[in-house]
Fold each of these.
Amino acid sequence: MSNWIEVCALDEIDEEDVVPFDHAGHTYAIYRCPEGNVFATSGLCTHERIHLADGLVMDDIIECPKHNGRFNYKNGQAQGAPVCEHLKTFATKVENDTIYIEVAP
Amino acid sequence: MSQTMIIIGAGEAGVRAARTLRQHNSEIAIHLFEGEQGLPYERPPLSKNALLDDAFSRKLIISAEELAQLSIHYHSDTCVEALLAETKQIRLTNGKLFGFDKLLIATGAKARTLPLLQQKGLDQHPLLFSLRSAADCQRIRNQASAGQHVVLVGAGFIGLELAASLRSKGLKVTVLESQARILQRAVPAPIAEVLAQSHAEHGVDIRLNCQIEDIRLNNEVEIDLAGQTSLKADWLVVGIGAEPNIHLANHAGLALENGIQVDAAMQTSHPDIFAAGDVCNFLLSRYGTQVRLESWRCAQEQAEVAALNMLGGAVQYVQAPWFWSDQYDLGLQSVGLSINPVTKIERRYDEQTRLYIELDSQQRILCACAIGLGNSVAKDIKVIERLINQNSIVDITTLGDVNVPLKSLLKRAKECV
């Protein structure tokens, strides 16, 4: 069963940027890529549980604000040391200019 | 026969080198020697979470499983006694010899002691502490309890991070600094000011321009200061910087200059011996200078360069160095080096959130240092890092205007290329 959660309005995230989103005790990072599409990953870096939403988005990559761990936020892939564990990703959709993510029910 | 690579020191540099060597060559034998017991661990938490969090355990850089999986021969609790450069061997304290084809020295740095305490034969006193290793951290953890008065000598990063951690644990903290302000060498004044303010608000007594005349260690600590009344405390931490562990390199006759001198390829004066991390004084050609840094990330990046060159590559270290510190709820980050700045610009978001940027005569950024709550300044520093590494010429008005996002400079720079 799908469980779509409303996040925010599309224009609340700049293109090539990221915002944090908390829901039911979990923290997520919600991204817009340079082309404008929306993506979602778990919100904490797999290295030291730092909030990724303070990091910098460049093209498809989010760079952790602390130790520069890099992930492709479109598929969650860790890009090498100091991070080796991938990020969990979540499905997103945009309806009526509102962003939704699909979380485990 | 396949080659043998030896790495001395299993800190961030040593482990990164071992990983990089294996990643690029599955044949070579890799031996990693470490004088300390246990698996390689991260040092940055030792002055922060490790003191605050009762349940803290060492954060490992690499696990035993991964060492085995990568066929990295890890020799912990094993001191290298001598480096025999001519015969390309190392000798362990038990007399055993190991030959190498290429060697990396990643022996790091050790805490500097106060000459006064050394002269008085007090440098091993039970009330005297310093902080470099997990064992040092454990000693401090065992010692510290709320209500005690601790004196920290030196308002550098280690001293201030310790001050914040120990204050948060309920100790009374006094910091003695010989300079006119905290972080004199490392951080521009407007940024240091925010930290000094935060320490004052948390009740840390920072005394500047302080000249220590005498220290007595008995059942308690007594310190005589020039022109001030004597201080009494329960224990004492000295955090006045670190000096590189160069004795192996020194005996081997390698070129030394505030650390082991290496070029941008991390190669020492011996073609088969490399050095990386806190122990090396390397050529940073972007700034046209030799520099020795104590930086978690720099150590790893240098080690990667060294490892690739040990495998016959021709890679140079060219990045702008990056550094961070956490004190209370504030996060500081800096990037680049302050070498002959011509223009200085402050970008002030609010009292606590500031970015200070230094540029050369051609309006290229040399360095920046920023402070703010949590990781709020990280994005700006990352943008600046890219602008430095791209040699971008930037618009100074935009830099100083908090209403224009810094990222727009990066976009503009991109378009210029």
Note: Chain A has one domain: 4-102.
Amino acid sequence: MLDVRNISFPPLFSDLSFSLSKQEMLLVRGTNGAGKSTLLRMVAGLIPPPPGVLFWEGQRIQLSTYQQNLLYSGHSLGLHPEALLKDQVNLWHYHYRVEKKAIEKALHIWGVASFDNQKTAHLSQGQQKRLSLSRLHWLARPLWILDEPHTNLDAEGRKIFEDALAHHLKNEGLAILASHEKLSGIREVFL
Amino acid sequence: MILRELYNAYLHKGSLLSTFAFFALALFCVSLTMGPNETLLRQTAPGLIWILAILTIFFSTPLLLKKEAQCGLLDEILLHPSLTSTYLLSKVTAEYIFIGLPLALMSFIFSPLFTLSSGETLALLLTLLIGFPALSALGILGSLLTLNTQGGGLLLSLIILPLALPLLIFGLSVMEITRLGLDSFPSFCLLMGSSLFLLILSITAGSWALPFAAER
């Protein structure tokens, strides 16, 4: 479903190819500074890839159409610096045109719904990560591109994430994860 | 997208209040330092108010945009199906409503300090209202170009300030012609034309600069 052919970003990586089908997950591993985030940003189209490198459903991608199939979560969490949690919900509602109830339901699942009147910037790192990852539950996209999704999550948070990921893959989703940790039983690209 | 940007600007209300406070204090202090000479005050007021408005916009816009970029909000924009130019136009509109209109209103309120006549005050208000969309767009363009640089403020002034000069020149010529009691319509047209041209130029250049600004 997703084909990446001979993607290069010198001097970090060159002529890297991989493909991903439905219900498949790929782990991008590497040391600090190896280019994991850069690769993910290129696959997400945030660093414009050269033509003829990315293919979606067998077709060469048209960037804005392709990007409507993906959910990207990077190092920056995408939370507004001045927003209360309820403001953040409103902002997502306007940006993604998703029902507020769906977002609030996801916040309950991630255990952050009770911070409604707190500034997101004042939440702990782990709580901010949970808030950011809550989009896994309310933004239905087939391809997840997640950069270090486990960072700052406690055991309970990791469990919620693993459940969401398993559910996503079961429902014919695809996922690319970057991590410097080894996860067992997952196809890997090592940079 | 427009709703998102309006809400986004509303969330920056704390920072905006300090922007307005800076503008009001600067106007007040300038009027005090000019002394009681009414002719001098009337002659210099339009230029001073315009320069203060330009500086206020050029220093407040990058701060807001930098905060948003650091939090990864520009990535969200790039992944949105709307064109980047739609985002930039929405941002200009939101800045116009949340920064431009209040600054123009404050200039109107503070105009008695500079002993401006009602005709001059009205002309000043109109020139600012016409010029602010282009100023906001230029401020956003400058912010995007200097987002990942050290000492971005100075660079922004060097790159963008010269581009704002046509607005300043035509805005002040409107004021001068109004002060002399002549027909200021042609000057208003020139101001509107330059404002529209700079708005289009900034949006086009900003659309190109946005992906590079988000790359960190």
Note: Helices of chain A lie at 36-43, 63-67, 85-96, 100-109, 125-133, 135-138, 155-170.
